[in-house]
Amino acid sequence: MKRLLILVLAFTAFSCTRTTKFELMKPDFTGIHFNNSITESDSFNVFKYEYIYNGAGVGVADFNNDGLQDLIFAGNKVSSKVYLNLGNFKFRDITSNFRGLDNSQWFSGVTIADINGDGYPDVYLTSTKEKDPQKRKNRFWVSNGKDDKGVPLYTEMAEKYGIADTSYSVNAAFFDYDLDGNLDLYVLNNSQTSRMNTNFRAKVTDGSAPNNDHLYHNNGDGTFTELSEKAGIVYEGFGLGIAVSDFNKDGYPDIYISNDFIKIFLIINKMRFKSTLEKRTCARIFRIKKISISSL
Asked: Which contacts of 84-92 are long-range, i.e. CB under 8 A and separated by 24 or more positions?
């Protein structure tokens, strides 16, 4: 018994002195004080808005090409924040360099891509919840390079690019679905603004549902064209997450969609089988397979 006690004490001492692989950095040290705070009330709570605690998203990218990864936090009821990495885990708030980035919208996701090939990452924020479509416009901050002090500069250009989607957008993904060298855009939507109605109704499968996802083709001239229905994106969804990969190894990217309430979508890209004319007109590019969670 005495030997056992000694072994237990030795193991405990070793466990307490062993260093961990990760260390929590405190906000006062890093300079990152973002907090996506949600305040509930009698009129605004999880019973009134089911997705109140779904979060808003975070993005990591080198906004000024100095070799250090910077951060952007999207906010729901609070202002989104952008932090410049100064090195040694120190960050500085540079949100003011993203003109128009404030707390006037309920942002739901962050997607980063270099849309114009200038070597600097651009930032697309999806927006949801608000009944006013103007407050649901997805926003797109395009890099203007950096100033003489190395601080990145950004301008909001979603409407100019044609991707200021006013659906109840949850997230998005940039990917080149037709392999023409330009990044296209898939916007994941969900129409839930209140508790789900349990009454039976037929599914909407003609592309007219408010919670139909949207596909935007990059025209290669700084503009996008929305062609969801032509491409076969016609099933209503309750999107929560999106992943892009070549699932069937045919060289073209496919789309995997996780939904609330309904089956998962695996959207297969059929571009390899299209003629040149069909590729230009984008005739039914995608074929949607519905997968039950139990079958995975």
From this structure: 84/151, 84/152, 86/31, 89/25, 89/29, 89/30, 90/29, 90/30, 90/31, 91/30, 91/31, 91/32, 92/31
- What values do phi and psi take at 200, rounded to 5? -70, 140
Nearest to 232 by CA among 253, 250, 205: 205
With bands split at pLDDT 50, 70 and 90, how would you rate the model's confidence at 192? low
Q: State the Cα–Cα distance between residues 294 and 296, nearest whole angstrom.
A: 6
Q: Is the pLDDT of residue 283 over 50?
A: no
Distance CA 174, CA 114 (A): 9
The distance of Cα 215 from the centroid of its chain, to the nearest Å, equals 14
Average pLDDT over the chain, rounded to an integer: 86
Tell me which residue has tokens 């072994």: 7
Residues 16-72: tens digit of each pLDDT: 556 788 999 999 999 999 999 999 999 999 888 888 999 999 999 999 999 999 999
Which residue matches tokens 């270099």? 114
Burial-class residue 278 by CB neighbours within 10 Å (0-12, 13-18, 19+): middle
Quote the pLDDT of residue 202: 75
Q: Which helix (H) or strand (E) holds 281?
A: helix 276-281
The structure tokens listed for 69 are 């990864």
What phi and psi, each to the nearest 5 degrees, are found at residue 273?
-95, 0
The token pair at 61 is 């990218």
